[in-house]
Design brief:
There is one protein chain. With 423 residues, the chain is an alpha+beta fold. The protein has 13 helices and 17 strands. The chain has 2 domains: 136 residues, Sandwich (Jelly Rolls); 273 residues, 3-Layer(aba) Sandwich (Rossmann fold). Strands 13-12-11-14-15-17-16 form a 7-stranded mixed beta sheet. A 4-stranded antiparallel beta sheet has the order 3-10-5-8, with no helix packed on it. Helix 4 runs antiparallel to helix 6. About 1% of the residues have low confidence.
Length: 423
């Protein structure tokens, strides 16, 4: 075992056997807690019983960082090549390790290599660096990890005991068309198509058509295939038993467009069902989208809009991923700088704070009600689910403070479900 260990990140096990700058890394950049790496860098990870993992994988959190060139990251573990992936966005990239591979024995030496822009006659300053790394972890894809938690959350919308989505989808057939507003990474669009058998169109401001080095649909199918055990254990999705079954649905039933849902290109009455999951709290003007839904639905067709954590609830900051799980109503009570300081004090990375807060529309429940009335859509179900999402929020001094300035219903509503029909 190595005796000299230099930690790379404050909250993760990765380390180097010499000063990080001698191993291809630059100084830790705080408070965001990341390091730039050179074209090649080497680090170590403790084994953590990796040989007993069902499906071991290396998880690298990094970002594209706005380069004019598309980076490709290649990984070796104990001199075994794991693969190469394009780094097109901020996120976690998974490199599968063959189960039982003898390369997992003992301490793990990880080598990272990145293609580099070589066309400029002179490259200076930060352009010498290739990728900013936020974490390197070893995990078991047979256990829960952040990506799987997100998938389970989306699948929960198909539970007939709690939501009207399954009943609405059973009215559709293979010739039906579904619009998924706020499709994001494509999970919900795929789930809608897989459950209903219909064709599903996902729209979002995400650039699906951008050159990524790997087709978006292939990338989506690859991610979904990591979660076969979840599908096989969930009614309505058990036919997704292997990669070919997933590929067929992604390629034959799903389409994705980079479009503003407030004004789409589709013709009047084109869709048989419209769905939106956890997007309406981020849309600048949900009223425009509701009127667009009314235009796009055929007469008699339905829409289901579901989102949790509207802006004025205790968790409405959407900053749980930044470590603010025990601070209610921070978006109402604190400045950006104060929130950033809280995240740093919690030992977490604050680099996403501005992006998350800037994405929230700040609408009140009354604004949603007014927009519904003006849309002309018939309301079949309108639920404003009251609950606290931050432990102890209802008895907190923060609650006493915000009650002086905001409507109680807004402060206590953690989720919204709207089931609509075009008459």
């Amino acid at each position: 075992m190595m005796t000299d260990r230099f930690p790379l990140f404050p909250a993760f096990d990765a380390y180097t056997d010499r000063e990080p700058t001698a191993c291809g890394f630059y100084d830790l950049i705080m408070p965001d807690a990341y390091r730039w790496m050179e074209r090649e860098a080497t680090l170590y990870l403790p084994n953590h019983e990796a040989q007993s993992f069902g499906r071991p994988a290396l998880a690298i959190q990094t970002t594209f960082h706005g380069f004019s060139w598309l980076p490709f990251l290649s990984i070796e573990i104990n001199q075994r090549y794991l693969g190469t992936q394009p780094i097109a966005n901020f996120g976690t990239y998974y490199f599968a390790i063959p189960p039982g591979d003898e390369a997992l024995a003992g301490e793990l030496k990880i080598t990272l290599r990145v293609n580099h822009h070589e066309q400029a006659p002179q490259i200076t300053g930060m352009e010498w660096l290739s990728l900013p790394l936020y974490s390197v972890q070893l995990l078991d894809l047979d256990q829960d990890f952040p990506e799987r938690v997100l998938l389970r959350e989306q699948i929960s919308a198909f539970d007939p005991n709690y939501y009207p989505l399954p009943a609405a989808l059973k009215k559709l057939n293979e010739f039906s068309r579904i619009l998924d507003i706020g499709a994001g990474a494509g999970w919900s669009t795929f789930l809608l198509a897989a459950y209903s058998g219909a064709r599903a169109v996902g729209v979002d401001l995400q650039p699906y058509d951008r050159t990524r080095g790997q087709a978006f649909k292939d990338e989506l199918a690859e991610r979904l295939a990591r979660h076969g055990s979840v599908f096989q254990a969930t009614p309505g999705f058990q036919h997704l038993h292997d990669r070919p079954a997933i590929d067929r649905i992604v390629n034959d039933q799903c389409s994705f467009y980079c479009l503003d849902a407030q004004q789409t290109m589709f013709r009047d009455g084109w869709f048989d069902f419209v769905f939106s999951l956890n997007a309406f709290e981020h849309i600048p003007d949900p009223g425009l989208v509701l009127r667009e839904i009314a235009r796009l639905l055929r007469p008699g067709a339905e829409a289901l809009i579901m989102f949790h954590l509207p802006y004025y609830c205790d968790g409405g900051s959407h900053l749980q991923a930044c470590g603010l799980v025990d601070r209610p109503w921070v978006q109402l009570l604190h400045s950006r700088e104060e929130i950033r300081r809280m995240v740093v004090e919690a030992g977490r990375v604050p680099n996403e704070i501005a992006r998350i807060l800037d994405s929230l529309n700040g609408w009140t429940l009354q604004q949603y009600r007014d927009a519904l009335r003006e849309s002309g859509l018939q309301v079949l179900l309108q639920q404003f689910k009251q609950a606290f999402t931050v432990p102890g929020a209802g008895a907190s001094p923060e609650f006493e403070q915000v009650k002086q300035s905001y409507p109680l219903e807004d402060l206590m509503t953690a989720g919204v479900v709207l089931h609509l029909r075009k008459e």
